[in-house]
Backbone:
């Protein structure tokens, strides 16, 4: 539906062919990423620690970096223990889950009729703030 | 003597006689995109990372052994004895991280450009599903080397799931296949990593790409059709 709207005849000069223009530049991007992957793998090969031992807990146990923010938030949420003994766990898990749900339904929450970011300053501000908090929690989690 | 051009032309005609390949290729490739649409190749690079993961993952699965007694040693064999085994495993590990990085960058680009707006809400929600599946790949794959880092990261990770109100204990035991991270956890994580998630991701990806193909790329400068 929208493509018909967007590709009406007078706008022809504002259109690019997908093949070969876009595909070629996409392939160049893939080729560069493949090069980066091989360089990273050669310089920093995947490590392997001691075999798993259920009886010996290492000093700094952490999840992967992309779960660190949630993990750190769950730890930090213990400040809510003054509310009730269950509050830290409830808030620590439910708030990130709620955030994810909001993100999932974003197209129905952002009702601004125009797409360009300059017409949606509030959403942009929210995005930058959320991103900042997540990055801060990740770094905090990494060094604690 | 056989002329290669005539043979391939003949083969092509033979197939074209039966199925309309020409029309399929035209429908798939000969579409247009708005000149002002800038994807920065982020979604495409995520897709590329997935193909790298599928290729290196299949190669690793040929040698990996998903039991607590043998998993660690099979990784040692891959790293130290197989030709280029270290490269395949290292690329798999790096590409996993890059796939998540580019997933997130792709998401941010779509947010900033408002490309999820009508009529592309479904593409966005399927994309969120793809992000969750990608995180699931990372979570299940991390345990497989069965070293200290893997074991304890999974212990902590499943503990986070155990903090979910009401259903937490059930979820933790379901993920671990018992009270603790054990052989049962390793086999179910392996099964989910190599059988369940690839099928789910491929299915969601197909829907994601069909939607993009049907609706075309959003023109960031024209947001008034909603």
Residues:
């Amino acid at each position: 539906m929208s493509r018909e709207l967007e590709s009406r005849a007078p706008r022809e000069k504002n259109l690019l062919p997908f093949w070969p223009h876009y595909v070629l530049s996409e392939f160049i991007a893939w080729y560069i990423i493949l090069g980066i992957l091989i360089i990273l793998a050669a310089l920093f090969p995947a490590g392997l620690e001691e075999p798993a031992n259920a009886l010996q807990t290492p000093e700094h146990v952490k999840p992967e970096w992309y779960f660190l923010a949630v993990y750190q938030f769950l730890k930090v949420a213990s400040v809510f223990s003054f509310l009730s003994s269950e509050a830290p766990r409830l808030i620590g898990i439910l708030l990130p889950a709620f955030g994810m749900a909001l993100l999932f339904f974003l197209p129905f929450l952002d009702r601004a009729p125009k797409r360009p970011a300059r017409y949606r300053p509030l959403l942009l501000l929210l995005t930058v703030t959320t991103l900042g908090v997540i990055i801060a929690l990740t770094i905090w989690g990494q060094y604690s | 003597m056989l002329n290669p051009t005539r043979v391939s032309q003949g083969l092509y005609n033979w197939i074209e006689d039966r199925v309309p390949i020409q029309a399929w290729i035209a429908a798939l490739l000969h579409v247009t995109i708005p000149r002002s649409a800038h994807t920065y190749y982020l979604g495409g690079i995520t897709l590329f990372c997935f193909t790298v993961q599928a290729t290196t993952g299949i190669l690793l699965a040929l040698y990996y052994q998903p039991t607590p007694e043998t998993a660690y040693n099979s990784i040692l064999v891959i790293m130290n004895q197989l030709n280029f085994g270290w490269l395949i495993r290292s690329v798999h590990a790096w590409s996993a991280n890059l796939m998540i990085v580019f997933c997130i960058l792709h998401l941010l680009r779509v947010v900033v450009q408002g490309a999820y707006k009508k009529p592309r809400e479904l593409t966005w929600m399927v994309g969120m599903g793809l992000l969750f599946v990608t995180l699931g790949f990372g979570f299940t794959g991390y345990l497989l080397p069965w070293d200290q880092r893997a074991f304890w990261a999974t212990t902590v990770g499943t503990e986070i799931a155990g903090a979910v109100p009401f259903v937490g204990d059930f979820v933790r035991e379901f993920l671990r296949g018992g009270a603790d991270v054990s052989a049962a956890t390793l086999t179910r994580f392996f099964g989910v990593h190599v059988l369940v998630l690839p099928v789910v991701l491929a299915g969601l990806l197909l829907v994601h790409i069909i939607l993009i193909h049907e609706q075309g790329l959003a023109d960031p400068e024209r947001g008034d059709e909603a």
In short: Chain B touches chain A through 81 residues (CB under 8 Å). Residues 39-215 of chain B form a domain with the Cytochrome Bc1 Complex; Chain C fold (CATH 1.20.810.10). Chain B is about 70% helix and 0% strand. The mean pLDDT of chain B is 94.
